[in-house]
Design a protein that fits this description.
Elements lengths: L1 H14 L10 H10 L8 H14 L6
Helix pairs in contact: 1-2, 1-3, 2-3
Length: about 60
């Protein structure tokens, strides 16, 4: 369930959602994503962690 929280926060942060707490940022989303990795048969959770890192650094995923 924590992984879903990270995904929701990721989308809200990208959109600049005014209802998201100002103290909730990329570091918190990254921590949630890393904690929720667990078993990752298809590598999707690892890919999401990479997306969060790319967004935090302000770069494109394919750079």
């Amino acid at each position: 369930m924590a992984g879903l929280t990270g995904i929701a926060a990721f989308g809200r942060t990208l959109r600049g959602d005014p209802w998201l707490d100002d103290n909730y940022g990329w570091d918190q989303i990254l921590a949630i994503a890393q904690d929720a990795r667990g078993r990752d048969e298809f590598g999707l959770r690892a890919e999401f962690v990479g997306l969060v890192r790319a967004a935090k650094e302000g770069r494109r995923v394919n750079e």
